[in-house]
Design brief:
Two copies of one chain form a homodimer. Chain A is 34% helix and 21% strand. Chain A is α+β, with helices and mostly antiparallel strands and 244 residues long. Chain B binds a DNA duplex (30 and 30 nucleotides) through helix 6.
Chain lengths: 244, 244
DNA sequence: CGGCTTTTTGAAAACCCTCAATCCATGTGG
DNA sequence: CCACATGGATTGAGGGTTTTCAAAAAGCCG
């Protein structure tokens, strides 16, 4: 029955992740009209200052908290966590600098958000977002685009969890992170999260994740050195199975 | 490596599902202001007539089709299907009368939509939705609420696929359908989709789905008669594991 | 260098999948 | 009206992938 054994585990190197990733890339709704992504809009939404420094492992919002705010990551990395009563965990998303989260809350947040690394978070009142959406149609459109892109991404993860093998999931994860972190030279990925977070994101156990990485190392597809991973053969990670 | 064997399988009784389900129930964004759900809005959006009758198993939109339209189910049931090159399938959603889909398309639809039963579908141009959103703030808000509710629901399915056992998934599915179909007397569910669709929705095989149902039958939690299922002991289906 | 946590590795077990046969419902034709 | 064919659902046996349990290895920090 699989009771979660591995707990939170706030570890991994404290990356600064200075660069504000090009999130939402390429997903325009219909018109190339709104060039300004939601990430940029949020920057100008609130008089700077309504930000909080969050320590590694600390909670930003709790599961089922009333949804008064939504958030933007300024520095660091955040995870969205869903917990079952018996301790099982599912991480539904990792958020990097620039990313906005909590918009899809409804009355209460469906998940807890926790700092994977030390992080700086901007809080924005829902009422402010609503007001801005009514005041500026371009913001409203950016908001819709963002929500659409996010929904699309989550659907992709349904396929991952429902139909990919363990090895395929880990491979997909490495490529996703390589894309999103967009760090330096060809294929270097400094994972900000620990194995336990990876496992809960991929619907696996830490042991399985570790074994998959070991196998990829053996086959020469990657090199592993703790949290630092080097993608040596991108082909070997993506190939056959990907979405038609 | 699990190659999909069970194909589409347009079967199951052709239910009429006359009633327009209370979708999106309870998930207001912040204000109880907008009482009118997106479902109702869509009804008045287009001069009736832009609807199509779709036969069971027929495709409504294809995976990767350019996103010119979004859709509303008027009668029947629709499934959103993601296919991998090797034939593996993931059903990301079932849509009932009143439900709107395709809003989260971006440039192209991420999934194919197919009729589970004979269905009537209303097509609405994206441009019309955008225009209406800019013209009427209440519509824009309903749109945001809808997308938020949908994102929340999909996240719930991430937990299901990532962390629930086969039995728990099937149980959750029965309860979901019982809720959404809202048919007659206590706990009767006439499933409009075949086992293969259920399996691809739950990330399982048809055999496993069948075995789980058999086990629930043995334990007295449900009665099964083909596509008709009777929930005898709701407790036995929901209990321990549910979201904290 | 200890003491801690995380990661890796190993062996055994569990769960779910695969393959294959049977059952059942429906529809057709003699 | 019944034999037969068809397609889905169920059931059984066996195997594979992933999990569980357990221990060793590797990092990190005082």
């Amino acid at each position: 029955m699989r009771i979660a054994r591995d707990m939170p585990c706030p570890q991994a190197p404290t990356l600064s992740l200075g660069h504000t990733g090009p999130l939402q890339t390429g997903t325009l709704w219909r018109e190339p009209a709104a060039e300004k992504g939601l990430s940029a809009w949020f920057g100008s939404l609130v008089p700077a200052g309504n930000t909080a420094r969050i320590e590694r492992g600390q909670e930003i919002v709790g599961q089922d908290d009333p949804a008064l705010f939504c958030f933007q990551v300024q520095e660091g990395v955040v995870r969205c966590v869903h917990r079952l009563e018996d301790g099982r965990r599912q991480v539904s998303e990792f958020l990097l600098p620039g990313d906005v989260f909590g918009l899809d809350a409804g009355a209460t947040h469906a998940f807890a958000a926790e700092a994977v690394t030390e992080a700086t978070i901007r809080k924005v009142r829902f009422s402010a977002v609503e007001a801005e959406a009514e005041a500026d149609p371009r913001f409203a459109q950016a908001l819709r685009q963002h929500m659409a892109a996010q929904a699309k991404a989550i659907r992709g993860r349904l396929v991952l969890l429902g139909r990919l093998t363990a090895a395929e999931r880990v491979a997909a994860f490495l490529l996703e992170m390589n894309d999103r972190l967009g760090q330096g030279p060809l294929g270097q990925v400094d994972l900000p999260m620990c194995r336990s977070d990876m496992a809960d994101y991929l619907g696996l156990t830490i042991e399985t994740v570790s074994r998959c990485l070991a196998e990829m190392k053996r086959s020469g597809a990657i090199a592993v050195k703790g949290a630092r991973i080097l993608i040596r053969n991108r082909r070997a990670l993506a190939p056959e199975a990907m979405l038609h």
